[in-house]
Amino acid sequence: MKVYLGTLLSIFFVILLPNSFGQTFEEYGIKVETVADNLHIPWEIVFSPDGRIFFTERIGNLRVIENDQLNPEPIASFSVGGGEGGLLGIALDPNFKENHYLYLYQTYNELFSTFNKVVRYKESDNKLSEEKILVDKIPGASYHDGGRIKFGPDGKLYITTGDAGNYNLAQDLNSNAGKILRINSDGSIPQDNPFENSLVFSYGHRNPQGIDWEPNTGKLFESEHGPSGERGVAHDEINVIEKGKNYGWPDIIGDETKQGMVNPIFHSGDDTWAPSGISFYNNDKIPSWSGKLFVATLRGNHLKILDVDSNQNKIISQQNIFVNEFGRLRDVVSGPDGYVYLLTSNNDGRGSQSGNDDRILKISPISEYRNKFSDLSPLKQHHNGVQPNEILCKENLILVLKIDNSPACTSPETAQKLIERGWGILQ
């Protein structure tokens, strides 16, 4: 409970406690903490079996978090193309523990052209070696550049590519643009791909941005940017991807139909979300979220939670959380620890920077946070990284922030005396 003590104290409160990202959301039963900040357009994040967290920054940096600390220097820095291109997707081999293979989607310029490539490296002690280009000359551009890469349950690597601003390429099976590609981990073509001697798994995509598999059925879901501005509508999409199917761009959008083309199971209509990374939450640490599909949105400035009926390929319900709370969201991943991780994208030229953007955020249950800190004194909680205004007090005590910003848990009578003398503020 907050008690407002007049204009002067309200101003003092704002100055004393700047906006913090270690905050609780009681309505969802969750706490959001900052894992890393002051980042340069983080794009995709993956978790290694040894506990390290790797992520890309679009400007060309591959970075790592280990022992809960962001390494100050990148593992590697690449010269990359600009616009929506850059150092984008990252994936770790399913057998990373044994082979330490790491995969990157990179945009590069060649004379007057822009291309993308998928490259495999061997990682050791936070260093890369043994570069091997698996797919090259994927059409690229400043817009519609795709870039998400993930291994599926079948052990194959899936790659999303944009139409590179040339709509017709999405329907051209001789082009790798506007597609979802599927390769073996060594770059070869899987024998069961739908088109002979082709990497193409599905086509007719405008700018696919997120892919993930529903845990119970193994179905592949995809998020895709619609044509806002080009045809006067948005129609951002959620699709269920099937082998060899045509998803319609640029011939159909939204609920339009054409023989041989597949409609999205869900679209935004005239609204624009600009959906990016997606992830199914398959854990019981936050029971109300189990089985839900999470969608990070850029233009929408929120995290979308979709309840999916996989048997009928329908979205039963949707919920938007963190609306305008953290700005543009580039990626969402359900971590192996049962927490949800978000990447903000407020420094990409289309957002509004706030504080120490960009950030990696971690979502965990409040109950876990409370169990961890509730028995500690206020100062010990603070020394363990709990923000002053998030300190937990024992029953019948209330939180007061002293004039030096140190937290204290006191009786209501003592709190009132501190406030009356100007020595504290009631939180």
Which secondary structure elements does this structure contain, and how are they paired or packed?
Elements: H1 7-16, E1 23-25, E2 30-36, E3 42-47, E4 53-57, E5 61-66, E6 69-70, E7 76-77, E8 87-92, H2 96-99, E9 101-110, E10 113-124, E11 127-139, E12 149-151, E13 157-160, E14 179-183, E15 200-203, E16 208-213, E17 220-224, E18 237-241, E19 266-267, E20 275-280, E21 293-297, E22 303-309, E23 314-321, E24 329-334, E25 340-344, E26 360-365, H3 366-373, H4 378-383, E27 398-402, E28 407-410, H5 412-420, E29 424-426
Describe the overall structure.
The protein has a single domain (31-365), classed as TolB, C-terminal domain (Neuraminidase). The chain has five helices and 29 strands. It has helices at 7-16, 96-99, 366-373, 378-383, 412-420, and strands at residues 23-25, 30-36, 42-47, 53-57, 61-66, 69-70, 76-77, 87-92, 101-110, 113-124, 127-139, 149-151, 157-160, 179-183, 200-203, 208-213, 220-224, 237-241, 266-267, 275-280, 293-297, 303-309, 314-321, 329-334, 340-344, 360-365, 398-402, 407-410, 424-426. The longest helix is centred in the first third of the chain and has 10 residues, at 7-16. Residues 1-21 have low confidence and may be disordered.
Structural class: mainly beta
Distinct helical segment count? 5
Beta content comes to 35-45%
| Overall 3D form | globular
What is the CATH-assigned architecture? 6 Propeller
- Separation of termini? 7 Å
